[in-house]
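Submission sheet (multi-component)
Chains listed below:
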Amino acid sequence: MNQPVEAVQMPLPAAGNSRRQNIGYWRKYGAFYLMMTPALLFLLINNYLPMIGSVIAFKNVNYQTGVFQSPWIGWKNFSFLFSTSDAWNITKNTIIYNAVFIILNLIIGVALALLFNAMRSRRLAKFHQTMMFLPYFLSWIIVTYLVYGFLNPEIGLINKSLLPSLGIQQSFDWYSDPKYWPYILPIVNTWKGIGYYAVFYLAAIIGIDKEYYEAATIDGASKWRQIQSITLPLIRPVVIVLTMLQVGRIFYSDFGLFYQVTRNAGALYDTTLVIDTYVYQGLIVTGDFGMSSAAGLYQAVVGFILVFVSNLIIRRISREDALY
Amino acid sequence: MATLSMKNTNGKLKAGGKPRSVTDISKPANTLINIFFWIYSALCIIPFVLVLVVSFTDEKTVLLNGYSLFPEKLSLSAYDFLLNDWSSIVRSYGISIFVTIIGTVLSIVIMALFAYPISRRDFRQRGLFSFIMVFTILFNAGLVPFYMMYTQYLHLQNTLAVLILPYLVQGFFVLVMRTFFTNSVPTELIESGKIDGAGEWRIFAQIVLPLSLPVLASVGLLCTLNYWNDWYLSMLFINDDTHINIQYRMYKALQDMQFLSSNSTAYAAIMRQNPSYQLPSETVRMAMAVVGIGPIIFAYPFFQRFFIEGLTVGAVKG
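Outcome: structure written.
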């Protein structure tokens, strides 16, 4: 990865066949290299040099001597990580939550898009779309405030007003019992993000030629039939690409959702700790650099394989939607 | 699921009278859908209304009756407290605004400058440089080496730079720009620019950029949102009060009221005058949220239109 950067810094490497060709090349494309320099420098510092730093996972880091002087310990960090129940727990949580999110985003997103498209009044559709899209714009901090307003155990809306008005006197301690969170987190995630997916699907539906529907109506096809035989098949490429993009990132979680919305409550870790929050915890709170970077590298490598594979699949299905 | 039952009313579509076009749905179905969306929209808005109402409620009422959309007694004491603390809030706003503006402008410039060469078909190395960018999407080193880089080697803790730098170049946005440049800037236009003697910089600034305003605007909006909503970088790298942005200040206020009381001169001043003063903590929290939400709610309707356009332009064509 050092090659391109060197190429930028040395204006006249022996790249072509003859010197004159080289001069012509640089006169023509030199400006391009200059244009790319800021981003390349940035990538070097922000992305590529830290990749070398991944060796931390194989070291017993000594903060005083620095990363590179620290002694190698091979796979020990990994064997520690995988010998704990943490590894299994965080992997399971990460994958299951993401799988649930992907399914909900797909089903509810498509359903909402179909409903939007069916509405007679364009103006009302736009209005509701605006409402639904609003949560997507908010930071996780704000969402955490909103969730807290509902779930505060003593004075939250649910325990204090909603449940009593339904005749339920029991008070739930949301922030200390992990069993509620596999339901709360998908609801919050869907509430915040669904507008985004619905917009994509709606754009795809609007792009469908109206003549298909007119012909189908003349042939006597019911609305439901039209959705099954026209709309769904025609938005299939968009559905597949959006879903595969999420599948590729199934090893990564939305840090804000899992850290902020759960208020990082230790009591909830059984059902809320994911790889990202675990790595953060190890780095900042317990200071266990070795284990934390082992978990990070595990995530990065498996994540890489998943992105790579899902991109291969996207390429198969729709070449121009692939990442590379 | 709701769709299923609605579609059964479809028989009435022809019998029922006057559909405006063949693709219109029947009246009852339309009513059902409308009811559904009114409920859904309410679910999106009610949490905000709740926070707003609680922030104007009397603290004792909140503690006694809980959060309510229809409180018994209203009060301005929460805002009164925050008003005393306005300087730290204004500073946090300032930091958020500064970081967002500088970050977005720099991002757009740097990313566009990279995207343009790799969009040119006659540039032999475009594949290589595209790959250098794409690889950063596929693989990242993880949090620990990233954190070490910024703290151990660049020593950027507690600076504004560390709130800007990490989000500067996003591979995905560069690819979006590249695709736009390739598809929407005609090669002939670039050729004619060259014939007229314009250099690459000039072609980029005077031909490519003006033609690419839609993509620049939508990527710009995404960057703005990234920077404005960020609290993660503050949490990682900032531990002094002077560099706290508005999101992180809200986070701190929600975490513990101690932060608001111990960090504000306002609290000290009030305590001096009235030692039995009780901080209206629940309502101050929610008032803090209202203050933080403020600007984004006002900017939202304006943002949203461009945002949807940008998303859908990018979505349908790679």
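Remark: Chain A has a mean pLDDT of 87.
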